Amino acid sequence: MKVLAAMSGGVDSAVAAARAAEAGHDVTGIHLALSRNPASYRSGARGCCTIEDANDARRAADVIGIPFYVWDLSERFHADVVEDFMDEYAAGRTPNPCLRCNERIKFAAVLDRALALGFDAVATGHYAQLRTGTDGLVEMHRAADAGKDQSYVLGVLDQQQLAHSLFPLGDTPKPAVRVEAERRGLLVADKPDSHDICFVADGDNAGWLREKLGDRAPNHGGAIVDDATGEELGRHDGTFGFTIGQRKGLRLGVPAPDGRPRFVLDIEPVEGTVRVGPRERLAVSALEADRPRWCGTVPRVLEGPEVTVQLRAHGAEHRARVEVHDGDRVRVELLEHASGIAPGQAAVFYDGTRVVGSATITATTRVVA
Description:
Blueprint: E1 2-6, H1 11-22, E2 26-33, H2 51-64, E3 68-72, H3 74-90, H4 97-116, E4 121-123, E5 128-132, E6 138-142, H5 159-162, E7 165-166, H6 174-183, H7 205-213, E8 222-226, E9 232-236, E10 263-268, E11 273-277, E12 283-294, E13 301-302, E14 307-310, E15 317-325, E16 329-339, E17 346-351, E18 354-366
Parallel strand pairs: 1-2, 1-4, 2-3, 4-7, 8-11
Antiparallel strand pairs: 5-6, 8-9, 10-11, 12-16, 12-18, 13-15, 14-15, 14-17, 15-16, 17-18
Helix pairs in contact: 1-2, 1-6, 3-4
C-alpha cells in the first residue's frame, strides 16, 4: 500500500512510520505545520507544534529512508480547532481540542488530501488497535497498553476513516516503543511526551483564553455564588477561566460553613455567573449529547454488562445504557455515577474494548441529594 505517515516529531509517530516501511508499504512522511507562527505555540519539549519538532520529524524520516514533506494546515487548524476551542469556552462549555483535531484535521483534511494524491492509508503513532469484525467492518479497540490508550480521542472516526487508517503501535507497550526507537537509531527515542494543549504555549489555559477573548461579551466579569443560597462569594474576570469540577483558583473570600472545599457546579456565560458548592453536588446520573459520530453501524440502543462510557481522555469507564434518538441525539443513563462532567466534553461509547462511537455532551442530570 501507499501509506502517508503523519510524523509529529515525537517517538511514537517515528516508530509507527518505521514499522509501516518495514512492513513493505510505500511510505511517505509528512509533518503538519499547524501554527501560523510556530514561536507562538509550544517551545522545547512541551508539545508538538514547534520548529524543533519539524526538524526532529525530518531527521527521523532520513533515518528510516523515506521521502518527507511539510504540509501547512495552519489556517484550517486555527479555524477548526483553535477558534472552536475559544468559542466553546466562551459559551461556558469544556471542549477537547485533541479530539477535534483528530476529527477535522488528521483524519479529515489530511486523509482527504492523501486519498486524492493516491495514498491508500494514513499511519499515525496513536495507541489503538484496528481489527476486522465478523460483519466485515473495521473495528477500533483499546490499545494493549492501557496507560497509553488513545481510543478516546479517536472515538470521532467513522468507518470510512478507519478503513484508511493504520495504528502500528496499538499492540505495543510504550517502554518497548522507546527501546525500538533507540535500536533503529532514531534520535527521538528519549524525547519526552507532549502534554497539555499544543497551542497554549505555557499550559495556562485560563491565561491564554483571557488574552485571546479579552472583553468578549458576555464573559467579561461576574459573580461566583453559592449554589444553595445564592450568596455572592467572590468575583471573576471571565467565565472562560472555569470548568465544572474545578476546585483550585476560585479565590473565594467567604469560607464554607463546614470548612470543606467548594467546586464549580455550573457556569452561566450569559449572566456571567459561576455557581459553586460541595463535591457531592458534582455527581451525575445521566447525560444528553448531540453530534454523534459512529465507528460503524448506527445503534439504536447500547446496553449490557460490557457497555461503558468514558467521559475524559484519561478518565474511568462507567457502565451505562445508551439510547440514540432520531439519529442525532443520545441519552446516556449512567449505571455508575460520574463526577464533574461538563457540557462540551466528549462521551465515547465502548462495548468491551471496541469503540462504538462518540457524542458531545450538551446537558447533565445531577444526582438528587
